């Protein structure tokens, strides 16, 4: 039940600020992150990668690029397509030196997609 609630909340939040463009993409994104986002690598087995491979094999409506995993992509809602998280990390950030360093998260592929 918690997975369903998480997925519904994620979809709700994604739809609050946008038109209903790319609804299929938003639904797939929410499913992937709410179901598979918690998988980790344990005892040499990468469960997150296994989930990604399973998803790409079973769900064909939204095609993911063969490069990387399903977790390497976000939904470009305006264009209804998948984009790599790395495309978001190129934005410049302003750092206010009067604030402590722990107040900042540097945008990297890992921190953007988390």
Give the key terms.
two-stranded antiparallel ribbon; alpha+beta; 114 residues; single chain; 40% helix
Task: Write up what this structure looks like.
- This protein is an alpha+beta fold and 114 residues long.
- It has one domain (2-113): Dynein motor, AAA2 domain, small subdomain (Cyclin A, domain 1), CATH 1.10.472.130.
- 40% of the residues lie in helices and 11% in strands.
- It has helices at 2-16, 23-36, 47-58, 109-113, and strands at 41-42, 45-46, 73-76, 81-84.
- Strands 1-2 form a two-stranded antiparallel ribbon. The protein has a two-stranded antiparallel ribbon with strand order 3-4.
- It is globular and about 50 Å long.
- The model has no long low-confidence stretch (mean pLDDT 80).
Give the SSE map.
Elements: H1 2-16, H2 23-36, E1 41-42, E2 45-46, H3 47-58, E3 73-76, E4 81-84, H4 109-113
Antiparallel strand pairs: 1-2, 3-4
Helix pairs in contact: 1-2
Summed up, what is this model?
This protein is an alpha+beta fold and 114 residues long. It has helices at residues 2-16, 23-36, 47-58, 109-113; strands at 41-42, 45-46, 73-76, 81-84.
Which parts are unreliable, with pLDDT below 50 for 5 consecutive residues or more?
none
Main β sheet profile: 2 strands, antiparallel
Query: What overall form do the CA principal axes indicate?
Result: globular
CATH class: Mainly Alpha
Distance between the termini: 22 Å
- The helical percent reads 40-55%
CATH architecture designation: Orthogonal Bundle
Question: Could you tell me the number of beta strands?
Answer: 4
Strand order of the largest sheet: 1-2
Number of helices: 4
CATH topology: Cyclin A, domain 1
Secondary-structure element series: HHEEHEEH
Mean pLDDT: 80
């Amino acid at each position: 039940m918690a997975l369903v609630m998480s997925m519904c909340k994620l979809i709700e939040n994604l739809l609050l600020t946008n038109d209903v463009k790319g609804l299929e993409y938003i639904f797939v994104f929410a499913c992937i992150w709410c179901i598979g986002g918690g998988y980790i690598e344990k005892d040499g087995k990468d469960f997150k990668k296994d989930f990604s491979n399973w998803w790409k094999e079973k769900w064909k409506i939204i095609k993911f690029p063969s490069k990387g995993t399903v977790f390497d992509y976000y939904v470009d809602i305006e264009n209804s397509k998948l984009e790599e998280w790395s495309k978001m990390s190129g934005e410049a950030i302003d750092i206010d030196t009067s604030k402590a360093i722990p107040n900042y998260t540097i945008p990297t592929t890992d921190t953007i997609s988390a």
